[in-house]
Amino acid sequence: MKARDGDPGRSLAACLAIGAEPRGLLVQRDTYFRARQGRLKLREEEGARAHLIAYERPDRSGQRESRYRIVTVENPDEIKAALAIALGVEAVVAKERRLFLWEGVRIHLDRVDRLGHFVEFEAPAGDDGANATAATARVESLRQALEVDGDALVAGSYGDLALALPGGEAVERA
């Protein structure tokens, strides 16, 4: 689940109040490529290895299932150049992410360049979906604890939001 965050200070305080474990500040740059199916992005992160992430999920707001594959990339500049030639680049989005963990759920408090502040919850449901009910309940608990309003929910990716800006201001074209 992803939502706009109208009060990042309140969200941070709520994470700490519920006992979410701070896991650091991640500085990330996602390059979104044109994909025939789903989404494909190269995530580069300061102080960490790059990853190519292919994923599919419905473009609707609220809780939704995401199926993904993550591959570690040794030469991100070369992979990025090859994929840009073969597929084309849709958008490049830079963000700072405060990561918290709470009962197995990743909480992301994101500040995305030119898009604003967001809160995102990722709860693994397992390959067989056996934990889906529990994961859904944990996300709903977090939504209440962080006071995420239904009107703030976001359907697409940060790349989609960047492309929707007038003139594509948050998009760095390759």
Topology:
Layout (H helix, E strand, L loop, with lengths): L1 E3 L3 H10 L3 E13 L5 E7 L4 E7 L10 E7 L2 H11 L2 E14 L2 E8 L3 E7 L9 H14 L12 H7 L10
Characterize the structure shown:
Residues 169-174 have low confidence and may be disordered. This protein has 4 helices and 8 strands, in the order βαββββαβββαα. Helix content is 24%, strand content 38%. Strands 1-8-7-6-2-3-4-5 form an 8-stranded antiparallel beta sheet. With 174 residues, it is of the alpha+beta class. The protein is globular and about 45 Å long. It has one domain (2-168): Beta Barrel (Hypothetical Protein Pfu-838710-001).
How many helices? The count is: 4
Distance between the termini: 29 Å
Please summarize the sheet with the most strands.
Answer: 8 strands, antiparallel
Strand tally: 8
Q: Give the overall shape, derived from the CA principal axes.
A: globular
Physical arrangement of strands within the biggest beta sheet: 1-8-7-6-2-3-4-5
Number of domains: 1
Our estimate of the beta-strand percent is 35-45%
CATH superfamily caption: Hypothetical Protein Pfu-838710-001
Derived from helix and strand composition plus strand pairing, the structural class reads: alpha+beta
Can you write the helix and strand succession as a string? EHEEEEHEEEHH
CATH topology value: Hypothetical Protein Pfu-838710-001
Mean pLDDT: 89
CATH class: Mainly Beta
| Uncertain regions spanning at least 5 consecutive residues | 169-174
How large, in whole angstroms, is the Cα Rg? 16 Å
Oligomeric grouping of the chains:
single chain
Relative helix content: 10-25%
Instruction: Provide the CATH architecture.
Output: Beta Barrel
